[in-house]
Amino acid sequence: MGYIPRDALENLHKYAYKGVDKSLTSKYILNPFWTWFVTLWPLNVAPNTITLSGLSIIFLNFATLLYYDPQYLTEKGGVVLPSWVYFSLAIGLFAYQSFDAIDGKQARRTGMAGPLGEMFDHGCDAMNTTLEAVLACHALNLGRSWWTVSSQVATLANFYLTTWEEYHTGQLYLGVFSGPVEGILMIVAIFTISGLYGPAFWDTKILTFLRLTNMPYINRLPNLPLNESFMVFGAFGLFFNIANSYANVRRTRKSSGSGTSRPLTFLLPFVVSAGLQLAWLAHPRVTSPAILYSPLFVPFLCAWGLQFARHVGRMILAHVTQDGCPFPLFDWMWVWTALCTLDAYLPALLDRQPLIQSSAKGRAFLVYTTLALSFVLYAQFCVRVINDITNFMGIACFTVRKKGKDGEWHHVQANGDAKKK
């Protein structure tokens, strides 16, 4: 009794990764580096081991942030991390990008390319989105603010769109400017600048920084701080990605003679889940400080990120099984979040105290319970899916081995053939 139905497992044999990367940065700068970098890894290192190693570096970066700033205070006069921490964030993110780029190359070198690698790679990327949003907003001196929440929404929306597009088109499409390439390099630059000049640098007004305050017409534009200007730039990028992703899906659907409006309904799960999270986060400040202005802010974002990772994991599973597992249009965690939100709004709705969140301790209990529940559900999903795929396909997750017809495990050679051992 596994997680994936038997007929869906059969579809795994039909899966083949398809991807398009139009990034000039990737083609002319990064890809030659990645092609060399992968040769440094022994052939007995599994691709998923490389992927997990990259995510482990991000976990270390995140743990460093929480060690120096456990309450995530980066408002003016708040906690400023040592310069070396920001430099380590830059190095760690660049390392993650490199590891994430070469795991597929290692899979082809060892003959281990397949749906498990797709699931594992995207699962790690999904968790990284929230962690990097928190780290980047700290470096930008945004801290606990709606700008940080906006960053969370934008990064998750971009990832959801990419997964949604891949589900409908059958291939992963990265444009001339994409989050996994140029977006990551921009955040690496942000970490580096914060290490050199401190996060307060990002409070500098953009027109002042560019020395355009005396320029006719230009000086009439809003003189936003650099960090807020970066958020506005990200919003324009999100709208562009929405239009571009839908154009690709529309073109694919029209070429196959399918309707072009139905895929839009598959965007509703993100709208619903994000709406519930934002509603809880914006609850009235009646009995205790709002989550946004308390040390519960980061645990709340992490719980949200884990729920998101599980949901997009189910989307990817639907893709690699060719709808053998259905596209997730509903998630039971929405019910939990809705109940938590309703409890927080009881003073405004029914003029009565919240059942649980009537005190700071009650709200902390609910947020940390949500975090634990989100972690357990996502861990269960990962373990069960990995077990189902490895058992069915006769492969190992973290070693370069395959099970032969004789029932014995075999190490895989560089050409993909199996050698009994």
From TrEMBL:
Family: Belongs to the CDP-alcohol phosphatidyltransferase class-I family.
Annotated EC: 2.7.8.2
Membrane-related topology note: Multi-pass membrane protein
Protein name as it appears in the record: diacylglycerol cholinephosphotransferase
Record pathway: Phospholipid metabolism; phosphatidylcholine biosynthesis; phosphatidylcholine from phosphocholine: step 2/2
Catalytic activity as recorded in UniProt: CDP-N,N-dimethylethanolamine + a 1,2-diacyl-sn-glycerol = a 1,2-diacyl-sn-glycero-3-phospho-N,N-dimethylethanolamine + CMP + H(+)
Keywords: Membrane, Transferase, Transmembrane, Transmembrane helix
UniProt-listed Pfam families: CDP-OH_P_transf
PROSITE patterns: CDP_ALCOHOL_P_TRANSF
Primary site of residence: membrane
Compartment list: Endomembrane system
Keyword Phosphoprotein: no
UniProt cross-references to Gene3D superfamilies, sorted A to Z: 1.20.120.1760
A GO term for molecular function: diacylglycerol cholinephosphotransferase activity
Cofactor: Mg(2+)
Keyword Transmembrane helix: yes
Annotated Gene Ontology cellular component terms: endomembrane system; membrane
Source species: Mycena indigotica
Transmembrane parts of this sequence: 50-68, 80-99, 183-202, 223-243, 263-283, 290-309, 329-350, 362-381
Domain of life of the native organism: Eukaryota
